[in-house]
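Supplementary Methods. Inverse-folding protocol.

Structures were first reduced to a discrete structure-token string of length 418. This string, shown here, constituted the complete conditioning input.
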């Protein structure tokens, strides 16, 4: 017979009631698995790209190092070649003069030496020694001229050989410089492929990318400003030339007006008004150029208006000394105003030339800063490659250009032979 459990037994027997269990385990800490995975993948991805590009990178660095001297040396040799060609051109001009002198001295010497009549005449007058001395003098002048000509011809041959050698060197350097440019482009493409996007493991690379972008923006702005100021300078130069022509027309009109006052008549009137008409049309062209220049550079100007003297056609036939004098004063005032405008345009042209030069210098500075930023970025990226691959990118110092490899050009004083 079964009896119900006692009170003590109820304390020993467990009650399995899952639906009433109050036990709750502590929650696990929340981990941003997605973000961590993205960072790890990004770091692993860039390292993978670096390792995959390591061989190509070393090859590019090695080739760039071998050709790094080419652009600078090409520029130097091209300048040297131009100097040689100019020296040769000057020497050829001088050689033509020397050949004419030699030809003249040869003819004088031969004529005197072969002149039987003159020799016989000196012998009859007892001046044979003087004649012989004169022949010797002409012979020395001829030999000196011949020596100078041959020395110049020797220099000409030397210059022509040197130019041929330098041209060959320039052609070789041009090929190398083009190869260097192509390699630089390939290097840029490789770096762009490897380091495209943020590189959190290499923050210095991201910082230099930002610096290069800022340098690019600054250079673009400086280049735009330089081009604008240069165009404004060209417009101001054209305007100055145009106003100068207008001043000339006004001056001619003033001369004709003075003539008219003193009785020049209808012809003087027609010349006067024709020049005033030309001055008005020319002034209109100048004003258009000035407006265009101001549109590019608002620091230019302002300019005062010029009122061109004018009258009725009937005045030509119905003039009198009083009306001629009154109109003469108007023409003179036009001339004065045009002169003042010309002076103002000249001053503004000089100022704009200064601004254009400053803009050009700023552009060159910005270009240098961009080149320095790019070089620093390349340096940082090479260091990143070295850290990841464990392979040094140092390939030694590139061959330096030795100016002694090329013969020196002749100086101006060496062209003319004594």
């Amino acid at each position: 017979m079964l009896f119900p459990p006692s009170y003590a037994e109820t304390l020993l027997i467990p009650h399995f009631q899952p639906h009433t269990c109050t036990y709750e385990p502590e929650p696990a800490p929340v981990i941003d698995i997605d973000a961590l995975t993205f960072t790890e993948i990004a770091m692993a991805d860039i390292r993978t790209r670096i390792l995959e590009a390591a061989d190509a990178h070393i090859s590019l660095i090695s080739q760039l190092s071998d050709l790094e001297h080419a652009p600078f040396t090409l520029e130097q040799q091209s300048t040297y070649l131009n100097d040689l060609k100019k020296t040769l051109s000057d020497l050829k001009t001088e050689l033509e003069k020397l050949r004419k002198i030699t030809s003249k001295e040869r003819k004088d010497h031969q004529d005197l030496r072969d002149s039987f009549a003159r020799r016989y005449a000196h012998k009859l007058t007892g001046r044979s020694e003087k004649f012989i001395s004169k022949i010797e003098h002409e012979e020395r002048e001829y030999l000196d001229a011949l020596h100078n000509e041959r020395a110049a011809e020797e220099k000409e041959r030397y210059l022509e050989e040197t130019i041929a050698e330098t041209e060959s060197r320039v052609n070789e350097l041009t090929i190398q410089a083009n190869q260097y440019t192509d390699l630089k482009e390939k290097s840029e493409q490789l770096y762009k492929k490897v380091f495209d996007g943020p590189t959190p493991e290499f923050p210095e690379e991201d910082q230099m990318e930002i610096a290069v972008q800022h340098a690019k923006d600054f250079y673009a702005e400086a280049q735009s400003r330089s081009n604008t100021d240069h165009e404004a300078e060209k417009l101001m130069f054209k305007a100055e030339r145009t106003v100068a022509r207008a001043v000339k027309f006004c001056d001619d009109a003033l001369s004709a007006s003075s003539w008219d006052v003193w009785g020049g008549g209808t012809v003087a009137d027609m010349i006067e008004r024709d020049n005033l008409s030309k001055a008005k049309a020319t002034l209109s062209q100048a004003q258009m150029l000035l407006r265009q220049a101001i549109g590019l550079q608002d620091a230019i100007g302002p300019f005062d208006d010029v009122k061109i003297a004018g009258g009725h056609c009937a005045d030509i036939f119905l003039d009198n000394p009083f009306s001629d004098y009154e109109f003469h004063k108007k023409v003179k005032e036009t001339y004065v105003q045009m002169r003042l405008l010309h002076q103002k345009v000249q001053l503004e042209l000089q100022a704009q030339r200064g601004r254009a030069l400053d803009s050009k210098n700023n552009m060159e500075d910005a270009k240098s800063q961009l080149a320095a930023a790019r070089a620093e970025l390349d340096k940082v990226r090479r260091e990143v490659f070295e850290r990841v691959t464990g392979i040094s990118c140092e390939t030694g110092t590139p061959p330096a250009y030795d100016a002694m490899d090329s013969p020196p050009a002749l100086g101006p004083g060496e062209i003319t032979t004594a």
